[in-house]
Amino acid sequence: MTLLILDTDHISLYQRGDLNVINRLSSANSKNLAVTVISLEEQMYGRLSEIKKATSAISLITAYSRLEITLDYFKSVQVLPFDQNAHTTFESLIRQKLRVGTQDLRIAAIALSVNGIVVPRNQKDFDKVPNLQVENWAA
Predict the structure, then answer these.
(1) What is the tally of structural domains in the chain?
(2) Whole-angstrom distance, CA of residue 13 vs CA of residue 58
(3) Maximal CA-CA distance, the chain
(4) What residues pair up with 118 in beta bridges, in sequence order?
(5) Which domain holds residue 120?
(6) 67 to each of 44, 53, 103, 120, 129, how far by Cα in Å?
(7) By percentage, how much of the chain surpasses pLDDT 90?
(8) Closest by alpha carbon to 29, among 68, 54, 63, 2?
(9) Where do transmembrane segments lie in this chain (predicted)?
């Protein structure tokens, strides 16, 4: 069966308790769900930035708690790598001069390399990627 690959936005929606996303995840087969190492990178960057910017005990404690929750989440899901196949696909997409952000293009490359379906919130950007299957759960 085809992998459903959650984009970073959908991971964030899930973490914030968005009912549409939670309901869709509940009804999906967990074996068919995945995230990318790109989303892991984006979320870790955000959590580490929160820790750096913390100016009070409560904000620091909260930031570290959010880091732990994020680590636990990524330990509980299948994380797809940015491997040689993804890199080759990424380079091909770069040569096409698509007007898509680098991180989204990396996520798209991973999805294309495993024939997965990306589940983004910013579907407009992902729709620019040829042959990429996209499904939006937040609408």
Answers:
(1) 1
(2) 24
(3) 48
(4) 5, 134
(5) 4-37+79-134
(6) 7, 14, 21, 22, 32
(7) 75
(8) 2
(9) none
Task: For 61-87, write each residue's pLDDT tens digit.
Answer: 999 999 999 999 999 999 999 999 999
The CA-atom distances, in angstroms, between 13 and each of 21, 75, 89 are 7, 18, 28
Is 50 part of any domain?
no
Question: Quick one: which H or E segment has residue 126?
Answer: helix 123-126
Query: Is 106 domain-assigned?
Result: yes
Q: How far apart are CA 8 and CA 56, in angstroms?
A: 28
116 touches 131 (CB < 8 A): no
The angle at the Cα of 56, spanning 13 to 69, to the nearest 5 degrees, equals 30
User: What average pLDDT does the structure give for the chain?
Assistant: 93
The DSSP string of 62-125 is HHHHHHHHHHHHHHSS-EE---HHHHHHHHHHHHTT-S--HHHHHHHHHHHHTT-EEE-S-HHH
